[in-house]
Amino acid sequence: MTNQMAATIQGKLMMKHIVMWDIRGDTPAKKRETAVFVKRCFEDLAGKIPGMTKVEVGLDVSGVDYACDVVLYMEFESPESLAAYASHPEHLRIKDVLGDCRIARHQVDYLAPVGNPALSENTDR
Fold first, then answer.
1. How many CA atoms lie within 13 A of 19 on its CB side?
2. How many domains does the chain have?
3. I need a surface site. Which of 14, 21, 63, 111 has the fewest CB within 10 A?
């Protein structure tokens, strides 16, 4: 990463972290119960991870067969904050507690403007 890119990240951009899971469950009720448990686990991270400024967890209500069951949305002050989260003891504890209740996982991490989107440099080209 160039010094200019690092300065841009620190000055105008934040990291967004989105993860979606398909949840294991023999019945719709069991899947829902497990999805609620996943939601509570990640919501419990609020205020515990340095550099994490937002955590939001949603459960699918569409019911379409191709939808994921749970989505995690987080914002971090910097790429370094997101990297530190990956090895943070609270995050590792949740991964251990959840075990294999997730059968598929999809993730996207990207830079986004802080505050005013008009300040954004085009980061996807």
1. 17
2. 1
3. 63
pLDDT per residue over 77-100, tens digit each? 999 999 999 999 999 999 999 999
Half-sphere CA count of 117, side-chain side, radius 13 A: 0
Global pTM?
Answer: 0.81
Q: Which two tokens stand for residue 92?
A: 């590792």
Which helix or strand (DSSP H or E) is residue 17 part of? strand 13-23
Sheet holding 13-23, edge to edge: 52-59, 70-76, 13-23, 102-113
5 part of a folded domain: no
Whether 4 maps to a domain, the answer reads: no
Confidence (pLDDT) at 15: 97
**63-90 average pLDDT score:** 96
Residue type for 105, please?
R
Distance CA 47, CA 122 (A): 31
The CATH number linked to 76 is 3.30.70.100
Q: Which residues pair with 17 in a beta bridge?
A: 74, 109
* Tokens of residue 43, six digits: 């919501």
What pLDDT, on the 0 to 100 scale, is given for residue 58?
98
